[in-house]
UniProtKB/TrEMBL annotation:
Peptidase S9A N-terminal domain sequence ranges: 68-337
A Gene Ontology biological process term: proteolysis
Role summary: This enzyme catalyzes the hydrolysis of the N-terminal peptide bond of an N-acetylated peptide to generate an N-acetylated amino acid and a peptide with a free N-terminus. It preferentially cleaves off Ac-Ala, Ac-Met and Ac-Ser. Also, involved in the degradation of oxidized and glycated proteins.
Keywords, in A-Z order: Acetylation, Hydrolase, Protease, Serine protease
Protein name: Acyl-peptide hydrolase
Amino acid sequence: MTKDAKDTSVKKYSIDHFFNTESIISNSISFDEKKVLYSSDKSRIYNAYMVSLEDNSQQQVTYSTDNAVYAVSFFPKDNRFLFLSDKGGNEILHIYVQNENGEAIDLTPGENERAVFFDWSKDEKSFFYGSNKRNPSFIDVYEMNIETYESTCIFTNNAGYEFGSISPDKRFISLAKVSNLNDSDIYLYDLEFDRLSHLTAHEGDVNYFPQNFSEDSDSLYFLTDENYEFKYLKKYHFDTNQSVEVAKENWDITTIFFSSDYHYLVYSINIDAKTEFKIINLTTHQQIELPSLPEGQIVNIQLSKSEELITFLLNSSNAPSNLYAYYLESKELKKLSDTLNPEIDPKELVVAKVIRYPSFDGLEIPAIYYKPVVNAGEKAPALVFVHGGPGGQSSTEYYPLFQYLANQGYAILDVNYRGSSGYGKSFFSAADLKQGEIDLEDCIQAKNFLREQDYINGERIGIIGDSYGGFMVLAALAFRPEEFKVGVDIFGVSNWERTLKSIPSWWESYRDALYKKLGNPFTQTEYLRSISPLFHAEKINKPLIVLQGANDPRVLQVESDEIVAALKKNNVPVEYVVFPDEGHGFMKMENKINGYKAVLEFLDEHLKA
Ligand SMILES: CSCC[C@H](NC=O)C(=O)N[C@@H](Cc1ccccc1)C(=O)O
């Protein structure tokens, strides 16, 4: 047996095994701190569930069979809750309330109205949300009374502002204005005087993102990368117009929030593709120690109104998210879910490792490596995985597809190529206006790492990715046709000119920023055509499989239809699976199983055989 390969006695599992594992997203604590609300796909599509903190009993509370239900939050003083749902993945999300008797009401029923929940008011009488019903391109801010469900527009957005937060006294709204993905500003809207002020006048590219207001509404916390590679936390005082540093790490601080009585500050840090949290006691300025937990990352942390209970999701590359509750006083820890399919032995799953390799110009590229399960003496095929973007990041969370492929004998190297977030602003902007070119080189160089593993067959390396990553797959096959043996394109862009001209209306505030990163489809047409695989499809000579959701509002089905037609015309082996009831990503278990089964069959035929 080769020294690095995994033991050969590992059990092989089917795709049904992997996808019969439950996926939990979101969590919210009830007003009486007796229950936690969450979304789970146990019913084969996301629905809302509740778990009792007293006896761990779980209860499904929504029963959708066609559209995913995303649980948002319990009400502040009763057991009603809010959830979001769209139609077949079209991303036109509506806010629904579910009453205690199980009846659900659409609170934002406009046919093309996209709504987003922002926050509860401090007085617990209303909530704030965004809606583009007045103008499809801009999200206005509304306040809805939670007894009458009457809503009032409190900020009319005519210039592409992004909501940040609302002050506890309801006087101020903080807003972000994005110039490009390296440069953004904070504005403060004063509801009392109907006045908008710019807080962050600056020169050059600096990001300023508003976070929460202080308890007495006299200052605003914000994240910035001013004079630093990473985002850190500052506080802006309205009386002096001065800001002071509050927390700084060697990595990006990504989110912050305060407990209900402001005794704790909670912030998350993106540490080398893994999220970590700090809870700071604001009286003692000490960090709260969390109990000993299985290895993994904590996400979606919540603090109860009493400030005694925290709930969170914990996952790792080899363990799907589970819900936990922890009582700060008694230090009691409760595991509230058990999501891994009991037929899978967790010891047989692959533990992903963060590795680094040099790219063509010496730049160090971080990537997440999943070792294949191979028999002694066998040489495994491998896949370079390319995440979405521009500016996305892969993390060491649980990806059933990767575990499935690794279990079936494929090595996977999930690359955080230049342009990915999480590694500082220089790395983030290093592929601007060179997208699909310089970052593609990083993905090609990933093959060197794979070839150095003596149990990998360096001649059998394919490329797989979704969305922007799907574009990179097509770009690799079109522009570097001899580098990869096959491509797996999951709803990838093939024609940037068309995609950038037809971005969803609610991305208006990001339009310029996207154009500055990728190219302007009205003025840089020639450049965009030069990087778009559709216009170079005649160079593709390697087998390709394409998965596409028919309702995808970001990467339209035509993007996949046309690249598939071009390959067929050239007699290049191409398989195409369209999902009539999916959008940008698969929400239905059946579709995931069918889509990824098709991917494995394709890889077994064209890469492994
Ligand atoms: C509002 S930022 C738009 C990019 C967004 N990024 C992160 O997820 C996104 O959805 N990107 C797509 C690819 C895409 C980029 C630009 C226009 C349409 C699609 C993705 O990679 O998921």
